[in-house]
């Protein structure tokens, strides 16, 4: 299934090749037709490879992540990252199958692209050695590439199907607001420099608000949500639940040495979950009622 613009190009090529075949001598027409068919075949192969390369690389890296268990903390971190990846893969699959980005918030994807880019920056070791890179740093690159691919689909490949009029929470306002909030109030742990605290806190605030454009878009669309989009939001919610658990369960030292900063992070992560809790209630209610059918899910947002 291809977009109208792509079909238009192929139809134009068909006309071109049909005219060309008529203009050549009869003995050479079969070679002209074969050339036209080979051109179509090459174009389809190139398109297929470009669409599935990111998917194949992502699956490979997900497999690598699952075999790196370590202790329970690392296992849960891997599970959190895999949930993020699965949610994004569902979105990408929806785009690929339907050749449409209808219902997907471009602003949410912009926010997550920035969040993942900042996460990658913060994970760079002081030695700049690959062997010193943490698991989070190694596998955060997967959702970053997936988000960039979805962004390309939203704003370039299938832009005609993007519902910009429903995507009203613009990243150009949310991102500066998060940076300003980090200047005003942020956690400051003793082992952090001021600049690191500022960047980390800005990233945290952007992560908290990243899903809001998608939730608002679902609300403005009347609550009729395609299942892959609902699954993406739910997977991201579960991933952030693990983030909160990781903070509470595995950072004992910070709880006592930097009490204010620790509880501030817990509160911000809790607010993140509360912002999406209403959606999750209707999502789980719809799942329990078996209302997921034909890749559509109707939820009263």
Layout of strands and helices, then pairs:
Layout: H1 4-23, H2 29-66, H3 72-98, H4 106-123, H5 135-139, H6 141-157, H7 171-184, H8 194-209, H9 212-220, E1 224-226, H10 227-250, H11 252-257, H12 259-288, E2 296-298
Antiparallel strand pairs: 1-2
Helix pairs in contact: 1-2, 2-3, 2-6, 3-6, 3-10, 4-6, 4-8, 7-8, 8-12, 10-12
SSE sequence, one letter per element: HHHHHHHHHEHHHE
Beta strands, count? 2
Q: How many discrete structural domains?
A: 2
Q: Give helix % range.
A: over 70%
- Quote the beta fraction: under 5%
Strand order in the largest sheet: 1-2
Bulk shape: globular
Class by alpha and beta content: mainly alpha
Rounded mean pLDDT is 77
- What's the alpha carbon Rg, rounded to whole Å? 23 Å
Q: What's the total helix number? A: 12
Low-confidence stretches: 1-22
Distance N to C terminus: 30 Å
Largest sheet: 2 strands, antiparallel
What would you say about this model in short?
The protein has helices at 4-23, 29-66, 72-98, 106-123, 135-139, 141-157, 171-184, 194-209, 212-220, 227-250, 252-257, 259-288; strands at 224-226, 296-298. By secondary structure, the protein is mostly helical. It has two domains: 1-67; 75-298, no CATH class.
Notes on the structure:
The chain is 74% helix and 2% strand. Mean pLDDT is 77; it is low at 1-22. The chain is globular, with a radius of gyration of 23 Å. Strands 1-2 form a two-stranded antiparallel ribbon. The chain folds into 2 domains: 1-67; 75-298, no CATH class. The two termini are 30 Å apart. The protein has 12 helices and 2 strands; from the N terminus they run αααααααααβαααβ.
